[in-house]
Amino acid sequence: MISAIILDDEELARQITRKYLEAFPQIEIVAECADGFEGIKAIQQHKPQLLFLDIKMPKLDGFEVLELIDSKPEVIFTTAHDEFAIKAFERNAIDYLMKPFSRDRFAVALGKAITRIETEIKTPAKLEETREQINAENLNRIVIRNGSNIKIIPIESVLYIEAQDDYVMIYTSEGKFLKQQTMKYYETCLDPKYFIRIHRSYIIKIEQIKQIEPYEKDSFIVKTLTGAKLSVSKAGYKKLKEVLNF
Amino acid sequence: MEEEKSLLFKHISMNHPIVSKRTNLIIYSALSITVGIVQYILLHYFFKLDDTTASIDSIIYCTLFSFIGLAIWFMVYYNDIEKNNIFVFSISHIISATIAVTLWIFKSRFLVSLFISDNAYYNTFLEKFQYLRVVQGYLGYIIIVLFYYVLIFYQTTIDNREREESFKSLLRDAELKSLKSQINPHFLFNSLNSISSLTMFDPEKAQTMIIKLSEYLRFSLQFKPDDKITFEKEIENIQRYLEIEKIRFGKRLAMQFEISAGCNTVKVPTMILQPLFENAIKYGVHENTEETLITIKASKDEKYIKVSISNNYDPQSVGVRGQGIGLSNIKERMHLIYGSSELVQIQDKNNIFTITLFFPDSNVSSVIQNV
Questions:
Q1: Cα separation of A233 and A218, whole Å?
Q2: What is the ipTM of this complex?
């Protein structure tokens, strides 16, 4: 048996998947969820092998759900949007079904999924791999899971980001949050109009800069509005000069 | 240094049309040589000048005139026929022609005299037929000026044609966009998906939805963006739209209409309310697992109908942007149609988003304009 979860906010859409799955007795639907939060809970609990995933959903979108779960099920996206296909395949999706899809098209996707699950070509390096391929997209919120708590941080409230080994510490107006992600990712995905990487270890929101002052010889630090002091690299200083025109 | 040019000259660059283009230069040189040969033939066979004298005279006069001809371009370029009146235009050309011809004759005579100084026959010829040279000079001036104008007109026609083409394609794009903006593809495909699902479980409901969707599409495709319809018709279409979404979202969507009877006959721009309901669905229903209530209230006073559309939203659905773009489109459209930017009000309070539009009653607004 292959365990599967259907995650879609529309009942009628879940119904189709459920109906089509009747032709595949080897698939067992262990849960059906209508929003991202529920979805994460169910995935953490059941650790399904297969996930039918809508993209636009309340609370969290499909990609954010994938970002926050520990287990990595095979994913078949089901959506009416065509603009996320590339991103979906970058996340190693098995298939991308455009609503409305036919029974035959569904069977093709499922065939691929079953083959992949049965031959277990799943590699643990999958997530790391996708982290490297960053597609420049404008991030407008950051999601963080801490145990069963999910925190959604709007980009507006991010003050600065600090590198911490394999993680980054995100400092916001509501406190700091640890997130498994690379500095490179945020450097690419945060809007350069508002954020600037000033050091190997720091990305800062430009309007948070209160003062730039020399520190020892040849190096500088930035003082933020909240009173933090962040070192600036040579390259970072050059960028600051360009952006702030001094 | 460059002053504003008239329409005719707008697309003509300062670059000399003959010097900067090889083909034009070749044509121009060929013409000059032809004129030179004709002059030689005339001098030699008609005025009986000897071989050498006729060739030297022809070569020098024609070569010099060709150079002066190149300079005439600037006269044409700066003496803008569409900007100066005909009097100024003619006077400046006459003056410049006179200067050009005088210069030409004196320079040429001087140059020729370096080669031929003691030919009595030639000297008498010069005295006797000086006036022919002057005539030749003015004629040449006119021909060259005309030549430049032909070039300019030709260039302008080509440019106009190109601009017309690009304008047409812009127009096509715009039409296509307005079509796309009338029907949101995601709405369409999600609705079709709901229908696809209903055909299996509730064929009757599927049929109802197909009919509603068809009516909605027919209505949406029927009008151009600047058409106006009665408020009643617009609301009917909104109802269709919401009923389709209601089938999709079930309990998550609730709606409430409070419309006073006086509003119904007032004309409003087509599909003006549609994007507001799409927004309410997008930022309210899409982002909320609980019920989202969309309310529309419309009332009429002497000059306006006031239409308020509000929806509650999940305050936790942070960071979903884009609300601004849709709304600025509405503001812009209202401004374009009614010439006032005060007709749209936005309120965001207690997790309820409300947008209020004021539509001038067209019967009354004409009176207002007259006052």
A1: 9
A2: 0.79
